[in-house]
Amino acid sequence: MYRLRNDIEAIKLVEGNAGEVGSFAKSARPRASFTNADGINPGSLRIYNDGPDLVVAPQQWLVKIADQLMVFSDEKFTALFEPIE
To answer: What is this structure's pTM?
Structure first.
């Protein structure tokens, strides 16, 4: 069993912050591109290039650990992480 030694960075996709989430993704993947113009998943943000493609749906979290990005549902995120005050 393991515990993270360092704090993690994360951002939740909510209405109006797709650009902020995309910029956050680029902090881990500088050559990444992102779009929210995906007609298949309305409201979602697609992150592609410079690593595996990811789709972040509304109310999901994009988590950065080292230089890796992962997507968590709100339920899984709150079960695994707690905010630092």
So the answer is: 0.91
